[in-house]
Amino acid sequence: MIESGLRELAAALAARRISSVELTTLFLDRIGRLNPDINAFVTVDPEKSLKMAAAADARIAAGAAGPLTGVPIAQKDIFCAEGWTTTCGSRMLANFVSPYDATVIRKMHGEAGLVSLGKTNMDEFAMGSSNETSFFGPVKNPWDRTRVPGGSSGGSAAAVAAHLAPAATGTDTGGSIRQPAALCNLTGLKPTYGVVSRYGMIAFASSLDQAGPMARSAEDCALLLNAMAGFDPRDSTSLERPAEDYTSDLDKPLAGLRIGLPREFFAGSGCAPGVMAAVQEAIREYERLGASAVEVSLPNSHLSVPAYYVIAPAEASSNLSRFDGVRYGHRAADYGSLDEMYARTRAEGFGAEVKRRILIGTYVLSHGYYDAYYLQAQRIRRLIADDFAAAFRSCDVILGPTSPSTAFRLGEKAADPVQMYLSDIYTIAVNLAGLPGMSIPCGFADGLPVGLQLIGNYFAETRLLNVAHRYQQATGWHRQAPAGVA
Ligand code: GLN
Hints:
The chain has 486 residues and is α/β, with parallel strands linked by helices. It contains 16 helices and eleven strands.
């Protein structure tokens, strides 16, 4: 049961071959056994999970179940969930119990009837690519426990890879769904900006943040996205569009598909040879499936990392000003004045990477530097979006690596922020443009998973999932599991 996908689990529940309480217990037991080593979950609350499962069973018995009612999944600890500790990986929120549900949580728990197995570990405030900035300690990659799972949704990735949950939620500001999916042999989707509500999702960089599904197949991502997406009047950037069934085109043949290969992703020596070899093989597989490859160009893509590390910290410095010790979260114990209370609270509550981002962000927004950094970065952002628009005139999807390397060792990049930032060299431009992007498994290099990135035009989620699903039917890389978890 624990290796099944969402559709099989839902079918087993609907046919009463297993109850949600039994299924949830199965996963909770595994979490109890394996989580102390992997550290994928920061909060489990079996009593709450089982209560949700019992409610789902009652709904199934009453004939009122939706497609995923009773299926248990894991939630990244960036989503506020009523009554659940919601930490965002930070000491600042280590004891914060949310009084309300994020819209995605309300949709998944309430409307869809999904069960939460717990909250997953993450880089502090989603800032990182290795999960090492978490206040709750690093997460181990189930494929090799001396290596990182990627970040910032590293706990979600490790949980699904180790079969502690069949699927999980993630968020992606610069690659945080796709890069950990790549490093853990998972399928992850970052939707078009505005497709999934950000209400109740703790903000990092609001113009870039977007939530999405992480699972072991494109089909499961489609099913979970159905439960997450939709217009929300409580998020001013949420888009009002007709509801879509993201599973509708999964099986559509790929004949005639034009795959764009950005010259800049395939030139130079930035990518590990084993990763490039697996990506090249995936291109040949797509050609066998009837697609044709065309060269495209994203001439400003080399500016995406520098532009992101101005824009994201700028927005973060503003968003994180709310953590001041007054209404909720950590508050320093000793202080003489109000100013001292703020200063000590923030000095104690935030870790080093978060402080670095707040300092950079405050600097680039300050008088005298705003034009030189922030405005320039916004201009680059526009050029990057224009590059994609031009590329999509000659192709339907863009393909490349997700991450320049496979999972690196714990500690390997922890002392070198620039090396860490470069882990997202292929993913960040997608966020700057607001486009949908996926990572799917495409093979192994030295025994470690390699991720293939697929980028679509705005609102092309259904098409991307189709392109991913057909490849998964033909190859089966996504069905490989790490040794010792089954
Ligand atoms: N690794 C990137 C960063 O540290 C992206 C993180 C994310 O997508 N949340 O900012």
